[in-house]
Amino acid sequence: LWDFTSTLNCATPDPVVLKEYRYGGFGFRAAHDWNNQNSKVLTSEGKTRKDADASRARWCMIDGAMDDGGHTWILFMDYPSNYNFPEPMRVWPENMNGRGDVFFSFSPTRNMDWPLAPDKNYGLKYRMLVYDGAISREIAEKTWESFAHPPHITITKTK
User: Fold this and answer.
1) Which of 35, 84, 81 is closest to 62 using CA atoms?
2) HEC states along 11-54?
3) pTM, whole model, 2 decimals?
4) Fewer C-beta within 10 Å: the chain N or C terminus?
């Protein structure tokens, strides 16, 4: 389990506009082992590799067989405060590079520009769960919920 957080801001006193584009945000290009014959994509909205590209999701689960006989899964999770949440995704088509190479990204500018104002910070936050074996869609959803809405703990001193 690991978190990735980035902060964007203007390097000058001038505003910047990140133009609408299909790539951006946080991306992952899978190992050469994964292709359209041995990998799968499933989003929180029930989309698969056939229809996930340009759709929005809270999470995306990708798995694939490895040449050494193993099988690896990654659950990518988007955070509610991210720009354009739930973020549109870039998922390569099933015939990419003639093999069905696997690429995924949350892309906040996939369907709209993102204006950045000077003297302001913009955060993007993601969590990945990498694991062997499989988890269910229900476990993926609970894992995202614990990331997006962690419990609040209050400690009260008593006598």
Assistant:
1) 35
2) CCCCCEEECCCCCCCEEEECCCCCCCCCEEEEECCCCECCCCCC
3) 0.92
4) C
